[in-house]
Structure prediction request, 96 residues.
Amino acid sequence: MSDLLPFGALLFTVNFDIIARRMPVSCTLHRRASARRPTAALQKDTTSGLPILLIFGAAGHDGIGSPEDQRFEMATYQFEFVMDQLAMRWPEKKQP
Prediction:
């Protein structure tokens, strides 16, 4: 990326499946670095001031066979990000 552009808000999610646990540490570290590089490049080259975030998950957090709590956790991150970007807020509870 060479030109500064006003990128919109971005949320990257990367999962590392169970196979990654059986890989040598160097392979796993390489996969993490491969995900961080484009995110860092976009963060550096944006002029919008909007967030560009990267979330790592494990054990196929968004796929079949993932533990239910991991899927809910990732969905919560994604909905929270969208709500924040749309400036949505939970309604205040009225006191009785």
User: Anything to note?
Assistant: The chain has three helices and two strands. The first strand starts at residue 10 and ends at 16.
